[in-house]
Amino acid sequence: MASTTTSAEIGTRERILDIAERLVQTRGFNGFSYADVAAELGITKASLHYHFPGKSELGDALVGRYTERFSEQLARIDAGALNPRAKLAAYAALYADVLRADRMCLCGMLAAEYETLPPAMRDAILRFFDDNQDWLEAVMEEGRADRSMRFEGTAHDGAGTILGGLEGALLVARPYHDVARFEAAATRLIAGVTGAG
Amino acid sequence: MASTTTSAEIGTRERILDIAERLVQTRGFNGFSYADVAAELGITKASLHYHFPGKSELGDALVGRYTERFSEQLARIDAGALNPRAKLAAYAALYADVLRADRMCLCGMLAAEYETLPPAMRDAILRFFDDNQDWLEAVMEEGRADRSMRFEGTAHDGAGTILGGLEGALLVARPYHDVARFEAAATRLIAGVTGAG
DNA sequence: TCTAACTTACCTACTAGTAGGTAGAGGGTC
DNA sequence: GACCCTCTACCTACTAGTAGGTAAGTTAGA
């Protein structure tokens, strides 16, 4: 009943999602086709339709899995007993890892293509951003409470600034193939929003 | 010999660029077709190919015109005899105007699709970002010189943080249809990077 | 023997792009 | 003023290739 596959095998379904995820993160949802995935996996397009009836369902599964994994990573950061500032650094490092794989954030990419996406995917993308902003807000509240952070305005708006700022830093740094560029922007962004040094 | 059209008419070429520009900014370069533009203009696809041999050439013209217009707006800000802080506010307002038209920055959108674009377009996108970062860097240097801004690190990195931050704020705010969200992020971003209040 | 996981063989719609033709404006020439 | 020429800006009609999607049949394992 859970999302576990029937057998113990690696699972074609997961391999489809892995390939499609990489294609969306590098080329966009409108920049890849069922034929691309099928060719790479070594099966036919028709077999893809067995696992995912349409591109829309594939997209839903993609965003769902990505959001789930991202949440797990946020939980892992929370479990690390880090101070608020270290939590934000760990959060930015998640984005840096995406860039190192020559990818854009899945939901950042889909945000660009938002107008062309099926309704279910749109909703899921907003939920991804909401989840992230909520988490960042909580960290900023924590930082304000323990006085390690100083800022004017709401923690909610500050969280939105960090979220958008990191997505944008990723968007711009990727064409340059420049991780240092991203890291410099991320560091200054977070320092600025949370009250530096 | 110059790019002026032969007669005094409004120009089909410009109308094609207007329509294609809006489609790229809302749906992406891979999210529209020659047929879309042709239908909206009321001419045939073949006529489009008369004005722009291929989608690649249309894309080149699009980025070229956009970059040119953006540069004109930066020059207009420079001509306004504003203080450095007001210049950055005016710069952010350019982005807000884009969002009010329910659009993404043309080059921000194309940055997402970067991997799928023809080489000439790729180069032009990097040049757009470089131009913007250079301009922002000059404003930050000016602000540091007149002591209206205080920041650690290079003005170049600070400029990159603002550029990426604004692109990302646009990217995330657009699905929410929320200009206030963008403006809150832009204000906090710039305040943070340039040393608030 | 049932079923999950495929296959072949197709379909319709759409993609960018091309070949070749035409209406009409403008100009020069006798 | 009739004739011709050239040019711009379109047109109809087509191509090859790709998009997402489907119906029906095959295979392999519990």
Short description:
2 copies of one chain form a homodimer. With 197 residues, the first copy, chain A, is mainly α.
Largest sheet entry of chain A: none
Tell me the radius of gyration of chain A.
18 Å
CATH class of chain A: Mainly Alpha
State the CATH topology of chain A: Tetracycline Repressor, domain 2
Q: Can you describe what's shown?
A:
Two copies of one chain form a homodimer. By secondary structure, chain A is mainly alpha-helical. Chain A has one domain (54-194): Orthogonal Bundle (Tetracycline Repressor, domain 2), CATH 1.10.357.10. Helix content of chain A is 74%, strand content 0%. Chain A has nine helices and no strands. Chain A has helices at 12-27, 34-41, 45-51, 55-79, 84-100, 106-112, 119-145, 155-176, 179-194. In chain A, helix 4 (55-79) runs parallel beside helix 7 and helix 5 packs antiparallel against helix 9. The longest helix of chain A is centred in the last third of the chain and has 27 residues, at 119-145. Chain A is elongated and about 60 Å long. The model of chain A is unreliable at 1-8 (pLDDT under 50). At the A-B interface, helix 6, helix 7, helix 8 and helix 9 of A face helix 6, helix 7, helix 8 and helix 9 of B. Chain A binds a DNA duplex (30 and 30 nucleotides) through residues 6-7, 12, 33-35, 43-47, 49-51, 53-55.
